[in-house]
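Input structure tokens:
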């Protein structure tokens, strides 16, 4: 991929300061809690906590170096300067070109320089459907941090642009954790009745949208669409995103989790699956989850629902078509003969639900990079439908406004050609003065509105009971 004047990106990348200082600290007992403490500290205007595979937590913060792409233009910032370039309707291509320049300037040794960011769902319209539906908001945003902290069970590694950042982080992590939150940061939990009242809002309108989508499918317009509904939080005490993240993480079993205040969005999420994972050696993987039943404390009931899930024709069909399309999208960027289904229709518990899960893997072609794979696989088929262009058109007809971050991706990548992108589901999202939840269900010709409503409620229970609010 290449787009935009090369000298623009070279100039920007050359202005990005290296992470020249590093230190290794002792590990703490709870990586998520320690990372969240850093997030609360207000070290910079933007931050992200990203929990990767194996429970490894990454914290990144900064404000001076970033990339923001819209449908028509991209803006890069570094060293107090700003660079802009046209994208000609290809923001992901321009974004990749800037990252290529960063790799050339900072190298790929020792894992390369990392970046953290998100992709809005509306990027999908430029990649697969109607460009006019992408809107004029930001579609991609990434932070190249001034400080990055990796927290594992064995150690805490801090890398920063200078010694000042190192000392700030070391001092914060050295502070003893309070037994009780200080009064100024104490949070109120949502009551069980309040959570149930919240997730039930808007179900009648959603049932109508499902019924209309079934009609479209039976008319032959598409095979499947993942129709979602937005659940705004009522006005009142401000949501405490860090406290919500910690409460939700203790009760969920996500593939990835994240807490961020980045590029205009705030989010605390517990993603059930990845859009893609790309390793330095070119191995690429995607993890479609489709087919859902509730999951709770009663193990006998969970097993009954599991048996029901694995034998339900509607759920099996929904899952199979998702895996089929994931295979096709992988084959478009992978070496011939390298694409394989390494896992098929396993059952994975994810918080308040359990899903049918598969994993499709392959090896990227020599001429393909992680952003080529991202362009092919984004957005996740399990958040859109089959075919993607037709499903995107159905979503535009039947959903209540643009999705924004929901159904998009939160990612961590590097100049060493790695990329780990989580699908944004089971997530509390904030933008401006508004805060909301959102959940969807895969609609096929066999769908019943009542069951799809029930499925969205099951998914919302992964987040709603864990909402925490400011005591003020």
């Amino acid at each position: 991929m290449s787009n935009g004047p090369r000298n623009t990106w070279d100039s920007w990348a050359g202005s990005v300061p290296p992470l020249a200082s590093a230190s290794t600290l002792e590990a703490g007992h709870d990586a998520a809690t320690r990372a969240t403490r850093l997030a609360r500290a207000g070290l910079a205007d933007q931050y992200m906590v990203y929990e990767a595979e194996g429970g490894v937590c990454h914290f990144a913060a900064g404000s001076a170096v970033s990339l923001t792409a819209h449908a028509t233009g991209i803006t890069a910032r570094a060293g107090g300067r700003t660079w802009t370039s046209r994208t000609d309707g290809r923001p992901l291509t321009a974004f990749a070109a800037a990252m290529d320049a960063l790799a050339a300037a900072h190298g790929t040794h020792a894992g390369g320089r990392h970046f953290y960011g998100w992709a809005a769902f509306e990027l999908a319209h430029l990649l697969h459907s109607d460009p006019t539906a992408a809107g004029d908001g930001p579609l991609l945003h990434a932070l190249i941090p001034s400080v990055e902290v990796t927290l594992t069970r064995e150690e805490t590694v801090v890398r920063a642009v200078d010694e000042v950042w190192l000392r700030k982080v070391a001092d914060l992590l050295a502070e003893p954790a309070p037994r009780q939150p200080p009064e100024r940061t104490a949070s109120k939990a949502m009551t069980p009745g309040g959570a149930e009242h919240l997730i039930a809002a808007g179900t009648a309108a959603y049932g109508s949208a499902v019924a209309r989508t079934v009609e479209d499918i039976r008319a032959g317009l598409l095979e499947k669409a993942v129709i979602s509904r937005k659940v705004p939080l009522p006005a009142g005490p401000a949501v405490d995103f860090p406290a919500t993240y910690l409460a939700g993480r203790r009760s969920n079993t996500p593939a990835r989790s994240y807490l961020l205040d980045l590029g205009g969005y705030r989010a605390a999420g517990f993603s059930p699956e990845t859009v893609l994972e790309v390793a330095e050696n070119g191995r690429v993987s995607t993890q479609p989850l489709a087919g859902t039943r509730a999951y709770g404390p009663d193990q006998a009931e969970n097993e009954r629902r599991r048996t029901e899930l694995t034998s339900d024709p509607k759920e099996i069909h929904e899952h199979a078509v998702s895996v089929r399309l994931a295979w096709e999208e992988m084959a478009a960027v992978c070496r011939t003969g390298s694409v394989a289904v390494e896992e098929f229709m396993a059952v994975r518990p994810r918080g308040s639900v359990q899903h049918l899960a598969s994993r499709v893997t392959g090896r990227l072609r020599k001429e393909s990079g992680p952003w080529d794979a991202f362009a092919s696989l984004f957005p996740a088929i399990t958040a859109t439908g089959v075919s993607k262009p037709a499903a995107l058109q159905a979503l535009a007809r039947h959903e209540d406004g643009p999705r924004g971050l929901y159904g998009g991706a939160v990612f961590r990548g590097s100049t060493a050609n790695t990329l780990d992108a989580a699908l944004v589901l089971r997530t509390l999202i904030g933008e401006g003065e508004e805060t909301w939840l959102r959940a969807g269900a895969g609609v096929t010709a066999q769908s019943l509105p009542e069951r799809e409503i029930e499925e969205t409620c099951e998914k919302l229970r992964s987040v709603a009971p864990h909402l925490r609010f400011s005591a003020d």
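The chain is about 30% helix and 30% strand. The CA atoms of residues 27 and 329 lie 40 Å apart.
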